[in-house]
Amino acid sequence: MSARHRDARGRPVVAVTGLGIVTSLGQGKQANWEALSAGRSGIHAIERFPTEGLRTTIAGTVDTLFDGPFAAPELSEKLATLAAQEAIDQSGLAAPGDFPGELFMAVPPVEMEWPQKQELAATIEGEVDYDGLLRAAASQRYRAMHEMFLFGAVADHIAERFGTKGSPISLSTACSSGATAIQMGVEAIRRGETQAALCIGTDGSVHAEALIRFSLLSALSTRNDPPEAAARPFSKDRDGFVMGEGAGALVLEDYDHALARGATILGVVAGCGERGDGFHRTRSSPDGKPAILAMQDALEDAGLKPDDVDYINAHGTSTPENDKMEAMSCAAVFGERMARLPISSNKSMIGHTLTAAGAVEAVISFMTIANGVIPPTINHANPDPAIMLDVVPNTARQAQVRTVISNSFGFGGQNTCLVLTAAPFVPESRA
Fold first, then answer.
1. Is residue 126, in this structure, part of any structural domain at all?
2. Does 49 fall in a domain?
3. Is residue 321 part of a domain?
4. How many H-runs (helices) and E-runs (strands) does the chain carry?
5. For the chain, what is the domain count?
6. Could you tell me whether strands 169-171 and 102-106 are parallel, antiparallel, or unpaired per DSSP bridges?
7. Considering the domain boundaries, does residue 203 fall inside one?
8. Buried b vs exposed e over 190-226: b needs ≥16 C-beta within 10 Å?
């Protein structure tokens, strides 16, 4: 294999040849890009279930593509299918049902939801308790329900549909999951285990129980009216994140493998960094050290320096503590440059797509590179004087972007950062 397309450590360069996306803004890259570049929000009042009496009644749900209602695993699978099909079609890599590589898939943690629990409870004689629900669920009568809520079921179905090779990998590392799925695909290609990988992050888990749990953690915005103004990353009056749904899919290939078959190379996943943090089950370490190290690791893995980065796709959840931590961490990595280095949050428009976020935002990052336009952070009317960042406020900005760092900082201290670059990626030091 040509040394030209190996990195400084002798590893294959990992190319991106297909991208797919579904969010509350619509299906596909074109619909999403038109909305993102126009600063349009997909956040709206929830109609899927009753919200009377709830503190938060809004979300970035995907409601118009399917006839529901669906349990979270069902909707997550449908969203993943749409994103994966778009990515595979663009790559031109696979015949239908015969993807020549492995599947790495981020899926939300699954458990039985209230409608299914109520269905089981209706069959229990005597007092309805947890043991009774387990006994009912374990009976052959509810086999389909049981299989739907198996953690690996979504990935198994996607693997069957697209004909991926090997055992599909399901993972869930909180809000960094989508980025971690991409990292696993990159590492498999670098190790020579596969020449291609299908990496997906998907999440269709906006349901009443999930909304209430996040609300009990005081994590959600309660600014319900108007819904599109609720998510305010890096603003002084930010009050929490807005749940969202969606899926992002990437086809990764060994760069030389993609060139040999005449593929259009959309970009390169040049570096990955991951750091764990046991500080708290939901809060990030206040000193930002794990986030700082994850960004530094990703840059080192890519063989790049902070000055090489043109844009940061922020985690930017709109929670008071997380945004402050991310701003501080970025300043520690990029220094005085942060005052003029563009950083914006897609979550201001699509909400926080949770398990899918890292993959969705990676797709948007590659669209940013391709179009030379940085999507804005909308709803930024009240800057936080403690966060002095160029957040690309309210209006998209034309800019030449060749290198993006995309941050994903999750509950429980899961921090994953990706360095994404334009193609061809042949730094002078490695040519």
1. no
2. yes
3. yes
4. 13, 15
5. 1
6. parallel
7. yes
8. beeebbbbbbbbbbbbbbbbbbeebbeeebbbebbee
- DSSP letters, 220-281, are B----SSGGG---TTBTT---B-BB-EEEEEEEEEHHHHHHTTPPP-EEEEEEEEEE--S-S
Q: Write the CATH number for 352.
A: 3.40.47.10
Q: Which phi-psi region, left, alpha or beta, contains residue 424 (left: φ > 0; alpha: ψ -120 to 50)?
A: beta
Give the DSSP H or E segment for 105. Answer: strand 102-106
CA distance 188 to 335: 33
| 99, two tokens | 């993807």
Tell me the pLDDT tens digit for each residue of 130-171.
777 777 767 777 777 667 777 789 999 999 999 999 999 999
Looking at the annotation, which residues are catalytic?
Answer: 175, 315, 352
**C-alpha 257: how far from its chain's center?**
26
Rg (alpha carbons) of the chain, rounded to whole number: 21
Q: Is the dihedral of CA 296, 297, 302, 303 positive or negative?
A: positive
- 50 vs 405: CA distance, rounded Å: 39
So what's the pLDDT on residue 126? 64
Structure tokens at 271: 């570096």
Position 187 confidence tier, pLDDT thresholds 50, 70, 90: very high
> Contact, 273 vs 296, CB < 8 A?
yes
DSSP letters along 340-351, please?
A: TSBEE-THHHH-
Full domain range(s) for residue 100? 3-111+149-423
